[in-house]
Amino acid sequence: MLKNRIKDLAKEIKEESIAVRRHLHQHPELSFEEYETAQFVEAKLRSIGIQKIEKKATTGLVALIEGKNPGKKTIALRADMDALPITEENDVPYKSKRAGVMHACGHDVHTSSLLGTADILHRLQNDFEGTIKLIFQPGEEKAPGGASFMIQDKCLENPKPTAIIGQHVMPHIPAGKVGFRPGMYMASADEIYITVKGKGGHGAMPETLVDPVLIASHLIVALQQIVSRNASPKVPSVLSFGKVIANGATNVIPNEVRIEGTFRTLDEAWRKRAKELIHQIATGIAEGMGGKVEVNILHGYPFLRNDPELTERSILAAKEYLGEENVLDLDLWMAAEDFSYYTQEMAGCFYRLGTRNEARGIVSGVHTPTFDVEEDALEVSTGLMAWLALEELKK
Question: Are 335 and 364 within one domain?
Answer without folding.
Answer: yes
